[in-house]
Amino acid sequence: MISISKINQKGFELKQGKKINKELPYFITIVTLLSSAGIGPYFMLQRVKSMELLPTIRNETNKMIKRIDLLGVDPLEVMRQVRLRASSKALGEFFDGYVATVESGGNIINYLKSKMKTIFDRHAESQKQAVVKLGALVEAYMTIQVVLLAVYIISAAVISDPFATSETGISSEVIFLILTPVISILFLLAANRNSVSKSPEIDFKKIIMFGAPGLIVSGIVIGLDLIPDPFIEPYLLGGALIASSIVPTIYFKKLYAKTISAEDSTPKILRTISEARKTGMSPESSVIHACKRKEYGVFNSVANGIANKIEWGVDFKTIFKDLQKEIQTFNVLISFNILFELISAGGGNPQTLDSLTETSERMQEIQKEKRELLMPYLFVGFVLMGTTGFTTLLVIDSFGDIAQESQELSNIEELAGSSLGLFPLIVLVQSWTAGLFLGRVIKGAFSGGFFYSIILVIMTLIGITLIQFSIIDVNSLF
Question: What is the rounded average pLDDT of the residues 210-219?
Answer without folding.
Answer: 77
